[in-house]
Amino acid sequence: SLRLPPATVAGPSGGAGPRVATADSPPGGGGGGGGRCRFSAVCPFPYARDGRADSVAPLGVVVCSASRGEERFSSLAAAVRAAPEGATVLLGEGETELDGALLLQRPLTLLGARNAVLTARGGGSVVVVDLPGGGAAGGLPPPTLSIVGVGVVQRATEQPGVASACAREGEPARAAVGYAVVVRAGRAELTQCTVQSALSGGCFVSAAASAALRGCHFGAAAMHGVLVSGRARVEMSHCHVHSTGAAGVEARGRSEVRLHCCRVRHSSRSGLFATAFAEAHAEYCNVFQCRFAGIECAGQSEVRVHSCRVHDGERGGLLALGRSSLRVDACAVSRNAMAGVSARGSGRVVVADSAVTSGRASGVHVSEEASATVEHCRVEANGLCGVELSGSAATLVARRNVVRGNGGEAFALPSPQC
Fold first, then answer.
1. Which of 179, 175, 210, 186 lies closest to 105, judged by CA?
2. Given a cut of 60, is residue 158 above it in pLDDT?
3. What digits encode the pLDDT tens for the residues 73-109?
4. Can you tell me the distance from the alpha carbon of 92 to that of 73, in angstroms, rounded to the nearest whole number?
5. Which of 245, 253, 301 lies closest to 270 in space, CA to CA?
6. What pLDDT is attached to residue 30?
7. pLDDT tens-digit readout, 297-342
8. Measuring CA to CA, which residue among 307, 306, 308, 310 is closest to residue 342?
9. Interatomic CA distance for residues 37 and 164, integer angstroms
10. What DSSP letter does each residue of 371-398 carry, written as one string?
11. Are 325 and 302 in contact (CB under 8 A)?
């Protein structure tokens, strides 16, 4: 079925579309060139660097606490075991190879000097956060573990085929193939950290845990850059996720993930993916050159995208499947190999105040039993149709759009049902 008001194709005059500013915009264009986050009054970006660990000897470890002052240790594991709650563990520069996962079970801060890196081999996780009382009973805030300025690298093992097999199947972290950073309980805050995994994924947050990832770099991962599951909550701001064997950022179960001023690129699956009953929110982000969709939702998930750029995807731009819900506001969707915005199954899509341009297929494609509302948008210069509706059960509502210069019809509608 179709409902088109008379002004749909003519739409607003000018047709310039939204001017979308993201974290990658040049100075003067609303990006990060002004030395502060220009999209949020409460975002502390750029994050100030804490240089207290720079004076520690290479590979040295110092624990600072109010109760015991400064104490030096020969190993990081011993320092973490001895550190009281609230202490700061200073890690000197250099690469510290761990015999097993560094288990963090009390609130403290791990602060790295420049070029301080933790590594592990053999398929196990490098860092595991498991804070007792992580459910924050009684309304109290959950205990928090902070990691600042530390690189976390999971090296390849003698069996590289294990990682690629897991990535193909899209499996979550397992005991045999742990993610580089795992947050099981409590709250973890990672700031200015670089996380890489040649065997599995970058960061896995599960159960009812939560994490804040600020100014972090997740790359060169055999599986996900960031995976959120269960009822976990993750906030990402000014992060860079790239070169992942699975989705760049994935939310599943009843989890929730929020991205602010992030860049997600070169993932082997979708850049941002939500499934089951998860929720995902992205604002002022740049998602590009992903192997599948830039942003995808499936199952009964809900995704909200505001002021983002989604472009140069090897397949589609934004995709809603199953019974998922996708809302796109003030975004620029361009140069994708398939439809800029696509709704399939029983997916529901709303696209407002956005530009969908220069794709190789149709700008907006609605099929099967899906529904879409497109209003105040510019759909232009796409290789096929501007807006394509296929299947007798698909529905479209279009209001006050500019639809012009596409390779096919402005609106391609099924016949004779419409």
1. 186
2. no
3. 999 999 999 999 999 999 999 999 998 899 999 999 9
4. 11
5. 245
6. 35
7. 999 999 999 999 999 999 999 999 999 999 999 999 999 999 999 9
8. 310
9. 37
10. EEEEES-EEES-SS-SEEE-STT-EEEE
11. yes
| Those residues with Cβ within 8 angstroms of residue 207's Cβ, 6 or more apart along the chain or in another chain | 134, 184, 185, 229, 230, 231, 232
Pairing mode, strands 88-91 and 61-65 = antiparallel
Read off the tokens for 353.
């105040």
Cα(204)–Cα(118) distance, integer angstroms: 17
* pLDDT tens for each residue of 110-135: 999 999 999 997 778 999 999 987 55
Two tokens, residue 268: 């082997």
pLDDT at 23: 59
- The tens digit of pLDDT for each residue in 385-416 reads 999 999 889 999 999 999 999 999 999 988 65
Q: Which of 173, 190, 75, 172 is nearest to 123 (CA)?
A: 173
Tell me the C-alpha distance between 321 and 394, whole Å. Answer: 13
CA atoms of 214 and 187, how far apart (whole Å): 14
Cα separation, 98 vs 371, in Å, equals 52
Amino acid symbol at 121 = R
* Residues 89, 83 contacting (CB under 8 angstroms): yes
Report the percentage of the chain scoring pLDDT > 70: 84
Instruction: For residue 70, give the amino acid letter.
Output: E
Percent helix, strand, coil in the chain, to 5, is 5, 40, 55
Asked whether 149 and 116 are in contact (CB, 8 A), the reply is yes
Q: What is the pTM of this model?
A: 0.89
Decide if pLDDT at 32 tops 80: no
- DSSP secondary-structure letter at 92? -
Give whole-number Cα distances, 291 to 57, 269, 279, in Å: 44, 5, 22
Predicted local distance difference test score (pLDDT) of residue 36 = 78
Euclidean distance between CA atoms 170 and 290, whole angstroms:
16
Residue 126, Ramachandran bin (φ over 0: left; ψ between -120 and 50: alpha; else beta): alpha
DSSP 43-90: --PSPPP--GGGGSPTT-EEEEETTTEEEEES-HHHHHHHPPTT-EEE
Question: Which DSSP letter does residue 374 get?
Answer: E
Altogether, the residues listed in the chain come to a count of 418
Query: If you search the block for the tokens 């200073």, which residue do you land on?
Result: 90
306/260 Cα distance (integer angstroms) = 10
Q: Computed from CA positions of residues 374, 376, 382, 384, in that sequence, does the dihedral angle turn out positive or negative?
A: positive
β-pairing verdict for 364-366 and 341-343: parallel
Q: Which helix (H) or strand (E) holds 148?
A: strand 144-148
CB 139 within 8 A of CB 192: no
